[in-house]
Amino acid sequence: MKELKEVIRLVVLEKRDIVLSIVFGFLAGMSAVGLFGASGYLISRAALIPPLYALTVLIAFLKLFGFARALGRYAERYFSHRATFTILSNLRLAFYKKLEPHAPRIFQKYRSGDLLSRIVGDVESLQNFFLRVYYPPVVLVIIFLGTIVFTSIFSISVAIVLLLGLVVTGLLIPAWYTVKQRKLASRLRHARGELSTEAAEWLYGFRDLKIYQQLDDRKEKLQQSSDDYIREDERDSRQVLSSHSWNTFATLLVSWIVTGLGAILVAEGDLNGLFLAMLVMISLTVFENAAPMAVLPSHLDDSKRASERLFSIVEEEDRGSATYNLDGELAPDIQVSNVSYRFPDEEREALTGVTVSIPAGSKTAIVGASGSGKSTLLQLFMKFQLPSSGELMVNGMDMKNLSEESIWANSNVVLQENHYFYGTIRENLQLAGEDLSDEEVELVLNEVGLEFDLDQPVFEKGENLSGGERQRLSIARAFLKGKRLWLLDEPTSSVDALTERMIFDHLYERASQDTVVLISHRLSGLEKMDQIIVMAEGKVAEAGSYDELMQKQGYFYEMKQIEKNIFST
Predict the structure, then answer these.
(1) Which residue spans within 246-388 are E strands per DSSP?
(2) What residues contact residue 567 under an 8 Å CB cut-off, 6+ apart?
(3) What is d(CA 296, CA 302) in angstroms, rounded to the nearest whole number?
(4) Which domains does the chain have, with CATH numbers?
(5) How confident is the model at residue 256, as a pLDDT?
(6) In sequence order, which residues have a C-beta less than 8 Å from that of residue 255 and are 6 or more positions away?
(7) Rounded Cα distance, 54 and 255, in Å
(8) Model confidence over 431-440: pLDDT tens digits?
(9) Sign of CA dihedral 470, 476, 481, 483
(10) H or E, element range at 397
(11) What percentage of residues in the chain have a pLDDT greater than 90?
(12) Distance (Å, rounded) from C-alpha 73 to C-alpha 23?
């Protein structure tokens, strides 16, 4: 049950509703047993034509049991479902709190459709844990024990039969189907994940599939995933139905045994015949509470696997205690010592033995060909990833012990791909701070060469903006945030040379005392950098100031000459 440890912890938090659910469930179950038992006794008693007052008392008890059963069932449903919805809410919140700090890394390890299936489907599966797994056995045992104690007053033999029936219907049959269910449940969940993944790919790539005329092929793949899921779901449903059928058969068999045994006891004079109908009705009624046990194996296995799939995401990503926060008042110092990194499920190392020193308040450019490891190194600085080996220190503290939230909160970040929300220019820029004035925003827009009305609409993902406008808007957000660490990944790749120069002039002015790390393919305009780090095949090829690297006539010099030749032609 270790897979359900976190879920059980959240369930136990709702102690009050759980206790009330059990109390009213017991009241409803025992009232039903009393109602049908009293009905059987009333029928037998009425056959002997007793005094009217005796029948009147029995009828009053019947009404009392009926009222208690209705009240108990309503209250049991109310408190158990309220507990379930609260537990589900707490589960979503607990999972989100664990997932959020690792979000950048998660998307590199899991496909979006699979994540969607886990976050939605598996969380929904866990809503059945309390109602179908945790709660029914408790109520079943209490009701059965109460019934068996009452039945033993009239016949020990019948009480033993009911006890054996409890073992068969409440333990043996569910255990048997638990073993059979495991393989089917695994295939069903895998099929559901595949279907969610293919559906997400279909929606995200619909335009490209249309353009390249591959829509029909992808549609067939999606249809196949759908058929596989439906087939596995049907198998699972047949398994549940089979379990329910065997459980019902066992309960009816127990009632037949009680009837036959009771008849023998009456014939031998060991049981008053007035109580035979009562015992038979009790046996028929008490096993109604065993019906949920038929589907318990399915829900138990489903809950275990859902919890395992759900929390395995965040457990795998829990790589550090994150006990310290980055000091936002100081320009940070970054030291990288013999760091290597390999992306999940890849054999090739993206970084190998990288050693870099970025002093506080310095301006550092990281250059190199595509795939040389520049952006990967920047991801390590943002703690989107953690090194496979080596040390990454920020202000003398190991990156593993720094809170991701504090790093992001105290960084001005511009990535190659930045998200733009549906809304207005003002709303997208207010991500940097909700208390920004229009004057501040307009000043920054002017610095990045944009002349936007702040109320101008922005479509989803910034579809109504050009590539250069989107980049400059993200730079404006970084300017407005104004923290002491600047992490810029190709911030001006879609901007013309004159605008780029203007933007960098304002950047140097704003970040004069800050730590700046710039990733760039372009080699022009790097003369003002304190140091340039040249990456090649995941390693540091060379490092130094612009003048030092040009005088050295090494890797950087060759890149510069190639760039000059290209632009001169």
Answers:
(1) 334-341, 351-358, 363-368
(2) none
(3) 10
(4) 2-312 (1.20.1560.10), 334-410+483-568 (3.40.50.300)
(5) 92
(6) 280, 283, 284, 287
(7) 28
(8) 888 888 888 8
(9) positive
(10) strand 397-398
(11) 21
(12) 10
- Extract the residue ranges of the chain whose pLDDT is less than 50: 319-320
Q: What angle do CA 290, 291, 294 make, to 5 degrees?
A: 100
Long-range (24+ apart) CB contacts under 8 A made by 490-496 are 490/416, 490/519, 490/520, 490/521, 491/414, 491/518, 492/522, 493/416, 493/521, 493/522, 494/466, 494/467, 494/468, 494/470, 495/468, 495/471, 496/468
Place of tokens 């945030």: 481
Per-residue confidence (pLDDT) for residue 362, from 0 to 100: 93
Strand locations in 462-527, DSSP E? 485-489, 515-520
Residues in Cβ contact with 317 at an 8 Å cutoff, skipping those fewer than 6 apart:
102, 105, 106
CA dist., res. 301 & res. 294, Å (int): 13
Cβ neighbors of 100 (< 8 A, separation 6 or more) are none
Q: Which pLDDT value is given to residue 485?
A: 94
Tokens of 524: 């022009």
pLDDT of residue 320: 47
Block residue for tokens 């991500």: 431
Report whether 398 contacts 379 (CB < 8 A).
no
What pLDDT, in 10s, does the model give residues 495-552? 888 888 899 899 999 998 999 999 988 887 788 899 999 999 889 999 999 889 889 8
Please name which of 143, 149, 193, 158 lies closest in space to residue 28, comparing C-alpha atoms: 143
Tell me what pLDDT residue 370 has: 83
This prediction has a pTM of: 0.64
Cα–Cα distance for residue pair 482/477, rounded to 1 Å: 9
Phi-psi region of 527 (alpha: psi -120 to 50; beta: other; left: phi over 0): alpha
Q: What is the pLDDT of residue 359?
A: 93
CB 155 within 8 A of CB 262: yes
How many residues would you count in the chain? 569
